[in-house]
């Protein structure tokens, strides 16, 4: 299943937003338009599905600090999960999840939580997989009609979804999908001379390069040895961005430890990671991440364009599309140059009206006549879609 809709009410600028999520969602907006808030909402939902609602809210400064000022007294979140393309909507109607969080003293309470599915269109009420209004928690019994209540030590500060019994297979599949989110912030990638990404790394099982690049070398080596087609994609992307690039190498530097080297046609000796520029190393990390077959079901990337030359962004846009076939991808960007290489149906524009955010997809604007003479980033600057103050 894919997460097809996201509804938010009462979160910072997102006073009331109901938007479609697509396999690739590139979020564009001016400063203060709600891009970071949108990512924070998705992360909060994922953390709540993993049983970490309390920690996630604390990291955001507590519920009162994220409620829409003067306009909201509670936070309401909702997602819709639809079958993958090719599945029958009649056989697998969408799941709708709603979570309402209200202040309680200095903390919060989970006021309402529902996971429903319209199994019979002839009936006005949907089928309820979860119906939780603390202190009443009810799950539908998968083996018998009616509801069952928890007979274990239920934690009222965490969602009923995060505590769903494993035998509730459809609920558990939805929970796993939502909780699988992986978040990568390009600005969080440390590139100092003593950072892990610039150093030789121990060989250990690694199918992803790590949020700080701590597994870049073993991930690349793993791709080379076990997924040669994927590794070839990495080197092809590097060649497209850097015409003089020749190949990557993995010389051993100690027992069980490898370095990564960059062979350039313009130099007789390979270049080690600690000698590469920030932009080159960041691009290598991004290419490795997006080429990995081990991407989780849901991936957020914040500002992937940081430190990258505009010429690299065409290659990056192709990588984003390719990886969106394997993971549902949400990308937040400030870069008009990246938007230049995206399609209108891939770009979600955030604007501010009357103090709160609104979201519209690029293909809901009448852009086709304009795209004959202008690029998408030029139309953004011309305020033909979205707002560019």
Shape verdict: globular
The number of domains is: 2
Number of helices: 11
Q: What gap, in angstroms, lies between the N and C termini?
A: 37 Å
What is the total tally of β strands?
20
What is the typical, i.e. mean, pLDDT?
Answer: 92
Q: Portion of residues in helices? A: 25-40%
**CATH-defined architecture of the largest domain:** 3-Layer(aba) Sandwich
Q: Give the DSSP E fraction (strand runs of 2 or more residues).
A: 25-35%
Radius of gyration: 23 Å
Query: What's the arrangement of strands in the largest beta sheet?
Result: 2-1-4-5-6-7-8-9
Q: What ranges have pLDDT less than 50 throughout 5 or more consecutive residues?
A: none
CATH domain class of the largest domain: Alpha Beta
Largest sheet, if any? 8 strands, antiparallel
Broad structural category: alpha+beta
CATH topology (level 3) name of the largest domain? Rossmann fold
Question: How would you sum up this structure in a few lines?
Answer:
This protein has 389 residues and is an alpha+beta fold.
Question: Could you walk me through the main structural features you see in this protein, from its secondary elements to its overall organization?
Answer:
The protein is α+β, with helices and mostly antiparallel strands and 389 residues long. The chain has two domains: 2-181, Rossmann fold; 183-342, 3-Layer(aba) Sandwich (Rossmann fold), CATH 3.40.50.300. Helix content is 26%, strand content 29%. It has eleven helices and 20 strands. The chain has helices at 35-49, 53-59, 63-66, 169-179, 216-226, 228-241, 278-291, 313-323, 336-339, 368-371, 376-381; strands at residues 2-11, 14-20, 24-29, 75-82, 95-104, 107-117, 127-133, 136-140, 147-148, 182-185, 201-202, 245-249, 252-254, 257-258, 261-264, 271-272, 298-302, 328-333, 347-353, 356-361. The strands form four sheets. The protein has an eight-stranded antiparallel β-sheet with strand order 2-1-4-5-6-7-8-9. It has a six-stranded mixed β-sheet with strand order 10-17-18-3-19-20. A three-stranded antiparallel β-sheet has the order 11-14-13, with helices on one face. A hairpin with a 2-residue loop joins strand 1 (2-11) and strand 2 (14-20). The longest helix has 15 residues, at 35-49. It is globular. The mean pLDDT is 92.
């Amino acid at each position: 299943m894919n997460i097809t809709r996201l509804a938010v009410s009462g979160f910072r600028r997102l006073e009331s937003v109901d938007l479609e999520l697509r396999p690739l969602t590139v979020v564009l907006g001016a400063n203060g338009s709600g891009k970071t808030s949108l990512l924070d909402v998705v992360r909060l939902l994922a953390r709540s599905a993993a049983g970490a609602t309390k920690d996630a809210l604390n990291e955001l400064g507590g519920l009162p600090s994220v409620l829409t000022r003067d306009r909201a007294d509670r936070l309401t979140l909702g997602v819709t999960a639809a079958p993958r393309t090719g599945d029958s909507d009649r056989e697998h109607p969408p799941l709708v999840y709603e979570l309402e969080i209200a202040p309680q003293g200095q903390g919060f309470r989970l006021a309402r939580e529902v996971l429903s599915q319209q199994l019979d269109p002839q009936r006005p009420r949907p089928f309820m997989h979860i119906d939780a209004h603390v202190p009443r928690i009810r799950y539908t019994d998968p083996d018998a009609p009616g509801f069952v209540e928890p007979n274990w030590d239920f934690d009222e500060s965490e969602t009923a979804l995060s505590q769903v019994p494993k035998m509730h297979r459809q609920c558990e599949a939805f929970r796993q999908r939502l909780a699988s989110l992986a978040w990568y912030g390009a600005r969080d990638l440390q590139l100092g001379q003593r950072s892990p990404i610039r150093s030789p790394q121990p060989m250990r099982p690694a199918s992803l390069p790590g949020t700080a690049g701590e597994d870049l070398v073993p991930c690349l080596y793993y791709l080379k040895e076990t997924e040669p087609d994927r590794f070839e994609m990495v080197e092809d992307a590097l060649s497209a961005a850097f015409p003089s690039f020749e190949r990557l190498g993995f010389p051993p530097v100690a027992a069980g430890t490898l370095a990564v080297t960059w062979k350039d046609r313009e130099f007789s000796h390979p270049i080690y990671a600690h000698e590469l520029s920030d932009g080159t190393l960041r691009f290598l990390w991004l290419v490795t991440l997006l080429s990995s077959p081990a991407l989780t079901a849901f991936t957020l990337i914040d500002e992937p364009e940081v430190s990258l030359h505009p010429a690299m962004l065409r290659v990056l846009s192709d990588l984003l599309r390719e990886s969106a076939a394997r993971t549902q991808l949400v990308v937040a960007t400030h870069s008009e140059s990246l938007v230049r290489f995206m399609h209108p149906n891939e770009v979600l524009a955030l604007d501010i009206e009357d103090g709160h955010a609104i979201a519209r997809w690029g293909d809901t604007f009448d852009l086709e006549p304009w795209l004959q003479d202008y690029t998408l980033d030029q139309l953004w600057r011309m305020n033909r879609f979205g707002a560019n103050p």
